[in-house]
Amino acid sequence: MNIINPKEFRILAVAPSYRGFGFAVLEGQDTLVDWGVRNVEGNKNAQSLNRVEELIAQYEPGVLVLQDIEDSRHSRRLKTLSRKIIAMAKTRKVSVKLFSHEQLQRIYFANGQGTKHALAEIVAKRFPDELASRLPPKRKPWVSEYYQMDIFDAVTLALAFRLSR
User: What are 33-66's pLDDT values in tens digits?
Assistant: First the structure.
């Protein structure tokens, strides 16, 4: 893990999933400070919310980035969790930026269309030392999504914020 420079602007990106959430902390222009997956059991929303709050306390980000899932096919539980994370971030005086699926597609793909795995490949090429070894193989339709994809979802969001500025 890298040493954090308090003068650099930090981005915390969180990608909630049915297992818990993936997260990434981006600092400065291209420093991936921390990343991972937090799996939770029991009351998944409460535990996820507590763990995101711990990440905010630890990294003191300038912005929290999430995917805007309100008008998506995501589960009701994930939509509720997303709303709770946004509310908690605001109480901690952290600004929040949301990106829709369509915005992410336009940022990363010239034609506005790409797969989740193609996004993960872009992220792995951007941070080869940190993430290339974690890139899962392309998923077959009958196989569940690999848990590492939550990391790539989070890094995708953090980079989208950086690229949109």
Answer: 999 999 999 899 999 999 999 999 999 999 999 9
SS (H, E, C) the chain: CCCCCCCCCEEEEEEECCCEEEEEEEECCCEEEEEEEEECCCCHHHHHHHHHHHHHHHHCCCEEEEECCCCCCCCHHHHHHHHHHHHHHHHCCCEEEEECHHHHHHHHCCCCCCCHHHHHHHHHHHCHHHHHHHCCCCCCCCCCCCCCHHHHHHHHHHHHHHHHC
Global confidence as pTM: 0.91
Residue from 50, 88, 82 nearest 157 by CA: 82
Name the token pair of 128: 């080869």
Fold of 10-164: Nucleotidyltransferase; domain 5 (3.30.420)
- The token pair that represents 76 in the structure block: 């009701």
